[in-house]
Specification:
The structure is a single chain. With 134 residues, the chain is mostly beta strands. The chain is built from one helix and nine strands, in the order H-E-E-E-E-E-E-E-E-E. It has one domain. 9% of the residues lie in helices and 31% in strands. It has a four-stranded antiparallel beta sheet, with no helix packed on it. A hairpin with a 5-residue loop joins strand 6 and strand 7. The chain is elongated and about 50 Å long.
Length: 134
């Protein structure tokens, strides 16, 4: 028998998970996220004006349903002031929990967008989201 979580509990679980200090980061290594990943599997972008972004719990919109969805209500944007340090590429984003730096989730950008090689004036926009469905 499969485990089933009612939709309203999915939304509640998302709320509990997101009600902690989280940081949105871009990664530069050629990685496809996997269920066995940890923070050490991702190389954070460096240089070129890049700075990781704090995510605030109040900015998550959680919608109960089949599936339940948590969507960050503001687009996160990076405008690069030049190239990043080696490997000078961007493949996706990952989110870590501030209290212990644990990986919460990661997403690789679509195949037609990677690797992305930023130059002065390049912009990356991300709307963090996570879906819960049982």
């Amino acid at each position: 028998m499969s485990l089933v979580v009612p939709n309203n509990r999915e939304a509640e679980i998302l709320g509990v998970m997101l009600n902690t200090a989280l940081t949105l980061r871009l990664y530069s290594n050629n990685r496809t996220p996997a269920g066995t990943d940890a923070t050490v599997d991702y190389t954070e972008v460096a240089g070129g004006g890049y700075v990781a972004k704090a995510l605030v719990f109040a900015n998550w919109d959680i919608t109960e349903g089949g599936p339940s969805i948590a969507l960050y209500d503001t687009m996160q944007e990076w405008t690069f002031t030049g190239v990043t340090t080696a490997p000078s590429t961007i493949y996706g984003y990952y989110i870590t929990r501030d209290s212990d730096s644990k990986l919460m989730w990661a997403e690789r950008f679509p195949s037609g967008s990677v690797p992305f090689n930023p130059v002065n004036g390049s912009i990356i926009r991300v709307i963090p989201r996570i879906t819960a469905d049982s």
